[in-house]
Amino acid sequence: MDAFYASVEQRDDPSLRGKPVAVGSAAARGVVAAASYEARTFGVRSALPSVTALRRCPDLIFVRPRFDVYKAVSQQIHAIFADYTDLIQPLSLDEAYLDVTEDRRGLGTAWATAKEIRARILAETGLTASAGVSYNKFLAKLASDHRKPNGQFAVTPDMGAAWVETLPVSRFHGVGPVTAAKMQRLGIETGADLRAKSLDFLQQHFGSSAEWYHQIVRGIDERPVNPNRERKSSGSETTFSRDLTEDAEIEAAVLGQADDVWEWCERTQGFGRTATVKIKYADFQIITRSRSHTAPITSREQLHAASIALLRSVLPTPKGIRLVGVTVSNFERGLAEPLPLFGHADMA
């Protein structure tokens, strides 16, 4: 979906259309959950502290999130998907992989299937979606961003490897900012640069990830679309446009990531007993703080409390922070007895 949360708000409130909109809170401790395309032209992005977003775009309009509405729309969209295939692997409320090899509706091509799905989403929800069409998940994911918003792009088998070579490695799904920076230090800027490196070289510098990089740069990804994939953890992290040093800003960012994680937990009814906070400093040092409990985390407030308790074990910060993340793991399906508020953090 295109700018999903913000687009839902603009759909439901015509006065917001064509204006820079952020879903979130404008409070000093607020964080942007989603930004409209009008806001993105000013550099406003999800997980950005609200005070920073307002500095970049003084006319930014903040709208409180309505997760119940977003979930209802997501269910509409998944009902459309189900008319075309049973092989649906959700990534979030607004994104999923679909394997349409069976061609249930006799449309002839995956391109035609994606086009019809997008048209139905627009007709039934009033929202636009973009699609990537390809012969594997890695390429479809890359292609889905190529013609946003409201577009689709296909990567065919005869163009897959050559197309990947033209892209910057920072765009590759699974290559985060730290890995991209490391690749650049090794002279790897594009897919072509990555392909030129031997498997031995990649293993020397990237260890267990080397085989993955060696495969995807050749357009190879054998992972199936798995509708029954069991998640071992749910996490969210963000890299800031500038290093954060103020406790309030850092705590606001952690709460924003916790909200992203809780959205998934609530939607899937997957409740974990272990909360982890990740911090990456300006010098790229990474630390994590984690704590496991006897009962699952079963509310947003509990996850907030757990995340802040873990974070405060390393505050005040001795140096700038460039990234924070929150993860819940050790899942138990379904509700459990509420967990009490958290005490001291353990080191992980």
TrEMBL record:
Name of the featured protein: DNA polymerase IV
PROSITE patterns for the chain: UMUC (PS50173)
Enzyme class: transferase
Record CDD domains: PolY_Pol_IV_kappa (cd03586)
Active site feature: E95
Cofactor: Mg(2+)
Protein function: Poorly processive, error-prone DNA polymerase involved in untargeted mutagenesis. Copies undamaged DNA at stalled replication forks, which arise in vivo from mismatched or misaligned primer ends. These misaligned primers can be extended by PolIV. Exhibits no 3'-5' exonuclease (proofreading) activity. May be involved in translesional synthesis, in conjunction with the beta clamp from PolIII.
Gene giving rise to this polypeptide: dinB
Assembly description: Monomer.
GO cellular component, one term: cytosol
Lineage of the species this protein comes from: Bacteria, Pseudomonadati, Pseudomonadota, Alphaproteobacteria, Sphingomonadales
UniProt source species: Sphingomonas trueperi
GO terms, biological process: DNA repair; DNA-templated DNA replication; error-prone translesion synthesis; SOS response
Subcellular localization(s) per the UniProt record: Cytoplasm
Catalytic activity: DNA(n) + a 2'-deoxyribonucleoside 5'-triphosphate = DNA(n+1) + diphosphate
Coiled-coil annotated spans: none
